[in-house]
Amino acid sequence: MTNNHEAFDAFRRALETGHTADFLKKVTDDFHFFVPLPLEGWNQKQQGSERFEELIRFERSLFQMRLTSLIELENESYGMVVFRAEGLLNGRPHHNELSIVFEFEEDRIRSFREYVGMPLKNYENP
Predict the structure, then answer these.
(1) Most trustworthy range by pLDDT among 48-57, 59-68, 112-121
(2) Is residue 42 within 8 Å of residue 124, measured between CB atoms?
(3) For the chain, which terminus, N or C, has the lower number of CB atoms within 10 Å?
(4) Are 65 and 16 in contact (CB under 8 A)?
(5) pLDDT tens digits for 81-92?
(6) Of 39 and 126, which is predicted with more confidence?
(7) Long-range contact pairs involving 75-81 (C-beta distance under 8 Å, separation at least 24)
(8) Rounded to an integer, what distance in angstroms lies between the CA atom of residue 80 and that of residue 4?
(9) Whether the Cβ atoms of residue 112 and residue 98 lie closer than 8 Å to each other
(10) Fold of 4-124
């Protein structure tokens, strides 16, 4: 099994820098994810590497962030990381906490589900 910390770190780097290659090297062929964006097209299951790259581009266009890992929990099938996110959201200082629950299949990331600590009103009205 891949080191879950490596998966968490690759996810963090993708959000902070926009570089998704390290994370996408770790995903399964049927990789999918859920994010809590209250926007048409994003409020359902998302499928595949290209969609993940679109998510990262979209998130980074609104929120230039630095993520700090606060909690990491894992077993053979699942991993959870809680990040403190700090940065600029639509040009204004913003901080929040987000939890990401990963599902692992053998040595790969099969899916993740993101939970955010407060409503994302700023995404609705950029």
Answers:
(1) 48-57
(2) no
(3) C
(4) yes
(5) 999 999 988 888
(6) 39
(7) 76/1, 76/104, 77/103, 77/104, 78/102, 78/103, 78/104, 79/4, 79/7, 79/8, 79/104, 81/8, 81/11
(8) 9
(9) no
(10) Nuclear Transport Factor 2; Chain: A, (3.10.450)
